[in-house]
Amino acid sequence: MLQQKIVIKIKFKCKKCRSKAMTIAAMTSGVCSVKLEGDEKDRVVVIGEGVDAVGMIVLLRKKVGHATLELVAECKD
Predict the structure, then answer these.
(1) Residue 69's closest CA among 4, 1, 2?
(2) 50 and 6 in contact (C-beta within 8 Å)?
(3) Nearest to residue 69, comparing CAs of 25, 27, 39?
(4) How far apart are the first and last CA of the chain?
(5) Which residues have C-beta within 8 Å of that of residue 63, sequence separation ≥ 6?
(6) Strand-pair category, 3-10 with 31-37
(7) CB atoms near residue 18 (< 10 Å)
(8) What number of other Cβ atoms are within 10 A of residue 32's Cβ?
């Protein structure tokens, strides 16, 4: 199975929300790495195999706040 790169934009209310989002993303099945990107560190980049992007978005919206799926692509690395 190929690795995929998923980019999710989240509106963080506080630093605690940021760490909560990172924890949720890291605990999702199939995830290899999670990192923050963007000028305001408002994008969560998830790399893994067979990751359920929609399921992760639903959970992030429920636990953290507004989240939008920006990109799902094959990882070239």
Answers:
(1) 4
(2) no
(3) 25
(4) 14
(5) 20, 21, 24
(6) unpaired
(7) 17
(8) 12
Give the model confidence (pLDDT) of 25-61 as tens digits.
999 999 999 999 999 899 999 999 999 999 999 999 9
Q: Map residue 41 onto helix, strand or coil.
A: coil
Residue type (1 letter), 34? V
CB 28 within 8 A of CB 55: yes
DSSP one-letter code for 61: H
Reported as type and span, the H/E element at residue 62 is helix 53-63
Structure pTM?
0.90
- Among candidate residues 69, 62, 70, 75, the one with its CA nearest the CA of residue 31: 75
